[in-house]
Design goal:
This protein has about 240 residues and is mostly beta strands. It is about 0% helix and about 50% strand. Strand 9 and strand 10 form a beta hairpin.
Length: about 240
């Protein structure tokens, strides 16, 4: 029932009346800036500029996740996104280190470099069929899907009816009908058919009611998306396209 906030100076918890501060020392003397929070496996997972931390609710203790891959690589960079799949893995996207898969119960860490795309990976998504998707903030191959047969992320081709409306993306969401929604940097809201890759564009900034820099998407109710952008918060009806 608490609300947790990740801030520039650490972790805060709000109980409806007051805010409690949790200060913890970040590895290598880096700042206490928290880039991501995710609740899973009875703990709070904390993404920082220096890797991954675990906060135990019962003991109120912070633990730095110091595990390494078979190649001796640990998570040491800024974490952008943390999601959980149906196999009890955490998927973690980073700045400069690609994507990691971490299994807390088996204490196994695996890295997916994504070849040349090792810069900014703003978000990951696990869909209703337990497929793992990666969103890149660059023009070109924006969307990648994990090929579980080869254990590699491969580009998922997107087909735009308007080729000039291709943009790096910041957010991804799957609605209850199975459509994907991409929040882009400067080309509005994109609806993606997960089978054909066909893209429809809404809320383009060139429109009077468009939105720039869409950072977050969630489904408030069937056919109702809450969208957070640099232009504020709006409720978008996916049927009427009104907001």
């Amino acid at each position: 029932g608490f609300i947790w906030f990740g801030t520039d100076e650490g972790l805060n918890r709000y109980d409806g009346i007051s805010i409690k501060d949790y200060l913890f020392e970040v590895k290598d003397g880096k700042s206490s800036y928290i880039s991501k929070l995710y609740d899973a496996f009875g703990a709070l997972w904390i993404g920082t500029e220096a890797g991954l931390y675990r906060y135990d609710y019962l003991s109120s203790q912070f633990q730095y996740i110091d595990i390494q891959t078979f190649n001796g690589i640990g998570i040491s960079s800024t974490i952008y996104s943390i999601v959980e799949d149906k196999d009890e893995n955490l998927w973690i996207s980073t700045l400069g280190q690609g994507v990691f898969k971490y299994n807390p119960s088996k204490q196994l860490l695996e890295q997916y470099p994504l070849q040349e795309h090792e810069m900014s990976i703003p978000t990951l998504m696990v869909d209703s069929e337990n497929q793992i998707w990666v969103v890149l903030n660059n023009v070109g191959d924006v969307l990648y899907r994990l090929n579980k047969a080869t254990n590699r992320f491969e580009p998922f081709p997107l087909h735009h009816s308007q080729p000039d409306m291709q943009s790096g993306s910041l957010a991804m969401y799957e609605d209850t009908e199975g459509y994907f929604w991409l929040g882009t940097w400067d080309d509005g809201l994109h609806k993606v058919d997960p089978y054909t890759g066909q893209v429809s564009v809404y809320l383009h900034p060139s429109q009077t009611d468009g939105s720039m820099h869409i950072h977050s998407i969630m489904e408030y109710a069937p056919h109702q998306l809450l969208i957070g952008s640099d232009d504020g918060l709006l409720l978008f009806n996916t049927i009427t396209q009104q907001h």
